[in-house]
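Moderator note: this is an archived Q&A kept for reference. The question asked for a predicted structure of one protein chain; the sequence and the answer are reproduced below.
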Amino acid sequence: MYTCKYARLFEKGGRNTEHTLKAVLFDFDGTIADTGRGIINCVKKVLKDNAIEEKDESRLRYFIGPPLVVSFRHLFGLDEDTAQEYVRQYRVYYSQGGMYELDLYGGIPETLERIRAAGPVMGIASSKPGVYLQALLEHLGIAPYFSCISAPELGTVNPPKRELIAAAMEKLNVRPEECVMVGDRFFDIEGGAQAGVRTIGAAYGYGGRAEMEEYNATWVAETTTEIAELIEKL
Protein backbone atom coordinates (compact mmCIF):
# COMPACT_ATOMS: atom_id res chain seq x y z
CA MET A 1 0.00 0.00 0.00
CA TYR A 2 2.81 2.36 0.83
CA THR A 3 6.56 2.40 0.93
CA CYS A 4 8.93 3.28 3.70
CA LYS A 5 12.34 2.83 2.21
CA TYR A 6 15.81 4.31 1.94
CA ALA A 7 16.11 3.63 5.68
CA ARG A 8 19.48 4.25 7.26
CA LEU A 9 20.88 5.78 10.40
CA PHE A 10 23.40 8.54 9.95
CA GLU A 11 26.89 7.32 10.73
CA LYS A 12 28.01 10.75 11.89
CA GLY A 13 26.68 11.22 15.39
CA GLY A 14 24.03 8.50 15.11
CA ARG A 15 21.05 8.71 17.43
CA ASN A 16 21.34 10.69 20.63
CA THR A 17 19.80 8.35 23.19
CA GLU A 18 19.93 11.04 25.86
CA HIS A 19 17.07 12.83 24.10
CA THR A 20 13.49 11.68 24.54
CA LEU A 21 12.90 12.81 20.95
CA LYS A 22 14.41 10.31 18.52
CA ALA A 23 12.63 11.02 15.22
CA VAL A 24 11.10 13.96 13.36
CA LEU A 25 8.70 13.27 10.49
CA PHE A 26 7.91 15.90 7.88
CA ASP A 27 5.09 16.36 5.46
CA PHE A 28 6.42 17.60 2.09
CA ASP A 29 3.92 19.83 0.26
CA GLY A 30 3.53 23.11 2.12
CA THR A 31 6.03 22.11 4.80
CA ILE A 32 9.37 21.50 3.11
CA ALA A 33 8.59 22.94 -0.30
CA ASP A 34 6.03 25.35 -1.71
CA THR A 35 4.65 23.08 -4.42
CA GLY A 36 1.50 25.08 -5.07
CA ARG A 37 2.49 26.50 -8.43
CA GLY A 38 3.03 23.11 -10.09
CA ILE A 39 0.08 21.39 -8.43
CA ILE A 40 -2.40 24.14 -9.31
CA ASN A 41 -1.14 24.41 -12.89
CA CYS A 42 -1.64 20.66 -13.38
CA VAL A 43 -5.11 20.74 -11.81
CA LYS A 44 -6.13 23.62 -14.08
CA LYS A 45 -5.06 21.59 -17.13
CA VAL A 46 -7.17 18.64 -16.00
CA LEU A 47 -10.18 20.87 -15.40
CA LYS A 48 -9.79 22.45 -18.84
CA ASP A 49 -9.55 19.03 -20.49
CA ASN A 50 -12.81 18.04 -18.82
CA ALA A 51 -14.64 21.32 -19.53
CA ILE A 52 -14.86 22.31 -15.87
CA GLU A 53 -14.64 26.02 -15.18
CA GLU A 54 -13.37 27.17 -11.80
CA LYS A 55 -13.87 30.91 -11.40
CA ASP A 56 -12.39 31.07 -7.90
CA GLU A 57 -8.81 29.89 -8.37
CA SER A 58 -8.11 30.29 -4.66
CA ARG A 59 -10.20 27.16 -4.06
CA LEU A 60 -7.57 25.12 -5.88
CA ARG A 61 -5.19 25.68 -2.96
CA TYR A 62 -7.11 22.85 -1.31
CA PHE A 63 -5.21 20.44 -3.58
CA ILE A 64 -1.93 21.19 -1.83
CA GLY A 65 -1.43 18.53 0.81
CA PRO A 66 -4.51 16.25 0.86
CA PRO A 67 -4.74 13.17 -1.38
CA LEU A 68 -5.68 14.29 -4.89
CA VAL A 69 -8.72 12.03 -5.11
CA VAL A 70 -10.07 13.58 -1.90
CA SER A 71 -9.59 17.08 -3.29
CA PHE A 72 -11.29 16.33 -6.62
CA ARG A 73 -14.25 14.74 -4.86
CA HIS A 74 -14.54 17.45 -2.22
CA LEU A 75 -14.32 20.46 -4.54
CA PHE A 76 -16.20 19.17 -7.58
CA GLY A 77 -18.57 16.52 -6.23
CA LEU A 78 -17.11 13.74 -8.39
CA ASP A 79 -17.78 10.08 -7.86
CA GLU A 80 -14.84 7.85 -6.97
CA ASP A 81 -14.20 6.49 -10.47
CA THR A 82 -14.29 9.93 -12.10
CA ALA A 83 -12.04 11.38 -9.40
CA GLN A 84 -9.53 8.58 -9.92
CA GLU A 85 -9.53 9.26 -13.67
CA TYR A 86 -8.83 12.94 -13.02
CA VAL A 87 -5.94 11.91 -10.78
CA ARG A 88 -4.56 9.76 -13.60
CA GLN A 89 -4.75 12.73 -15.98
CA TYR A 90 -3.17 15.00 -13.40
CA ARG A 91 -0.20 12.67 -12.94
CA VAL A 92 0.52 12.73 -16.66
CA TYR A 93 0.94 16.50 -16.53
CA TYR A 94 2.76 16.32 -13.20
CA SER A 95 5.35 13.79 -14.38
CA GLN A 96 5.91 15.77 -17.58
CA GLY A 97 7.34 18.68 -15.62
CA GLY A 98 4.75 20.08 -13.24
CA MET A 99 6.44 18.37 -10.29
CA TYR A 100 9.48 20.60 -10.68
CA GLU A 101 7.48 23.82 -10.46
CA LEU A 102 8.26 24.30 -6.77
CA ASP A 103 10.39 26.29 -4.36
CA LEU A 104 12.16 25.14 -1.21
CA TYR A 105 10.94 27.15 1.77
CA GLY A 106 13.53 29.57 3.08
CA GLY A 107 15.67 28.18 5.87
CA ILE A 108 14.84 24.52 5.26
CA PRO A 109 18.45 23.34 4.63
CA GLU A 110 19.62 25.13 7.78
CA THR A 111 16.71 23.73 9.77
CA LEU A 112 17.42 20.17 8.64
CA GLU A 113 21.10 20.59 9.51
CA ARG A 114 20.25 21.86 12.99
CA ILE A 115 17.86 18.96 13.62
CA ARG A 116 20.44 16.43 12.46
CA ALA A 117 23.01 18.02 14.78
CA ALA A 118 20.53 17.83 17.67
CA GLY A 119 20.31 14.05 17.32
CA PRO A 120 16.93 12.90 15.95
CA VAL A 121 16.70 11.03 12.67
CA MET A 122 14.30 12.45 10.10
CA GLY A 123 11.76 10.97 7.75
CA ILE A 124 9.03 11.95 5.30
CA ALA A 125 5.37 10.98 5.81
CA SER A 126 3.42 12.29 2.83
CA SER A 127 0.45 11.47 0.63
CA LYS A 128 2.54 12.28 -2.45
CA PRO A 129 3.69 9.07 -4.21
CA GLY A 130 7.10 7.93 -3.02
CA VAL A 131 8.63 7.90 -6.49
CA TYR A 132 7.92 11.62 -6.83
CA LEU A 133 9.18 12.39 -3.34
CA GLN A 134 12.53 10.69 -3.85
CA ALA A 135 13.06 12.50 -7.15
CA LEU A 136 12.16 15.87 -5.63
CA LEU A 137 14.30 15.43 -2.53
CA GLU A 138 17.26 14.67 -4.78
CA HIS A 139 16.38 17.58 -7.09
CA LEU A 140 16.34 19.94 -4.10
CA GLY A 141 19.58 18.52 -2.71
CA ILE A 142 18.14 17.46 0.66
CA ALA A 143 17.69 13.69 0.22
CA PRO A 144 20.64 12.79 2.50
CA TYR A 145 18.86 14.25 5.51
CA PHE A 146 16.04 11.73 5.45
CA SER A 147 16.30 8.18 6.71
CA CYS A 148 12.84 7.09 5.58
CA ILE A 149 10.16 7.94 3.04
CA SER A 150 6.69 6.73 4.01
CA ALA A 151 4.35 7.38 1.11
CA PRO A 152 1.89 5.61 -1.21
CA GLU A 153 3.02 3.63 -4.19
CA LEU A 154 2.12 5.34 -7.46
CA GLY A 155 -1.36 4.33 -8.59
CA THR A 156 -2.52 2.90 -5.26
CA VAL A 157 -5.20 4.13 -2.90
CA ASN A 158 -3.88 6.68 -0.42
CA PRO A 159 -3.74 5.28 3.11
CA PRO A 160 -4.78 7.54 6.01
CA LYS A 161 -2.02 9.83 7.28
CA ARG A 162 -1.93 7.97 10.60
CA GLU A 163 -0.88 4.80 8.76
CA LEU A 164 1.91 6.60 6.92
CA ILE A 165 3.18 7.99 10.22
CA ALA A 166 2.92 4.58 11.91
CA ALA A 167 4.83 2.94 9.04
CA ALA A 168 7.62 5.50 9.34
CA MET A 169 7.90 4.96 13.09
CA GLU A 170 8.08 1.21 12.61
CA LYS A 171 10.85 1.52 10.05
CA LEU A 172 12.79 3.95 12.24
CA ASN A 173 12.17 1.77 15.31
CA VAL A 174 10.76 4.55 17.48
CA ARG A 175 7.74 4.76 19.76
CA PRO A 176 5.06 7.46 19.39
CA GLU A 177 6.31 9.34 22.45
CA GLU A 178 9.74 9.55 20.81
CA CYS A 179 8.45 11.10 17.59
CA VAL A 180 7.16 14.46 16.31
CA MET A 181 5.19 15.06 13.10
CA VAL A 182 5.63 18.39 11.27
CA GLY A 183 2.99 19.45 8.75
CA ASP A 184 0.97 22.36 7.43
CA ARG A 185 -2.53 20.88 6.97
CA PHE A 186 -5.11 19.37 9.28
CA PHE A 187 -4.45 15.94 7.74
CA ASP A 188 -0.94 16.07 9.26
CA ILE A 189 -2.06 17.27 12.68
CA GLU A 190 -5.06 14.97 12.91
CA GLY A 191 -3.05 12.02 11.58
CA GLY A 192 -0.28 12.70 14.07
CA ALA A 193 -2.74 12.76 16.97
CA GLN A 194 -4.32 9.51 15.79
CA ALA A 195 -0.86 7.93 15.62
CA GLY A 196 -0.11 9.12 19.14
CA VAL A 197 2.70 11.55 18.28
CA ARG A 198 3.21 15.21 19.15
CA THR A 199 2.81 17.63 16.28
CA ILE A 200 4.28 20.89 15.03
CA GLY A 201 2.00 22.92 12.80
CA ALA A 202 3.86 24.74 10.03
CA ALA A 203 1.81 27.95 10.00
CA TYR A 204 3.80 29.35 7.05
CA GLY A 205 2.29 26.63 4.83
CA TYR A 206 -1.16 26.26 3.30
CA GLY A 207 -3.25 25.65 6.40
CA GLY A 208 -2.16 28.70 8.38
CA ARG A 209 -2.14 29.24 12.12
CA ALA A 210 -5.92 29.10 12.45
CA GLU A 211 -6.11 25.58 11.01
CA MET A 212 -3.18 24.40 13.13
CA GLU A 213 -4.80 25.71 16.30
CA GLU A 214 -8.25 24.39 15.36
CA TYR A 215 -6.85 20.87 15.10
CA ASN A 216 -4.81 21.24 18.29
CA ALA A 217 -1.25 21.06 17.04
CA THR A 218 1.04 20.56 20.03
CA TRP A 219 3.10 23.53 18.88
CA VAL A 220 2.77 26.02 16.02
CA ALA A 221 5.82 27.35 14.13
CA GLU A 222 5.58 30.53 12.08
CA THR A 223 8.91 29.91 10.33
CA THR A 224 11.18 27.01 9.48
CA THR A 225 13.69 28.40 11.97
CA GLU A 226 11.13 28.04 14.75
CA ILE A 227 10.82 24.35 13.90
CA ALA A 228 14.54 23.89 14.52
CA GLU A 229 14.33 25.84 17.77
CA LEU A 230 11.47 23.68 19.02
CA ILE A 231 13.24 20.44 18.15
CA GLU A 232 16.45 21.56 19.86
CA LYS A 233 14.50 22.22 23.07
CA LEU A 234 12.98 18.72 22.96
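Archived answer notes: The chain has two domains: 2-34+103-233, 36-100.
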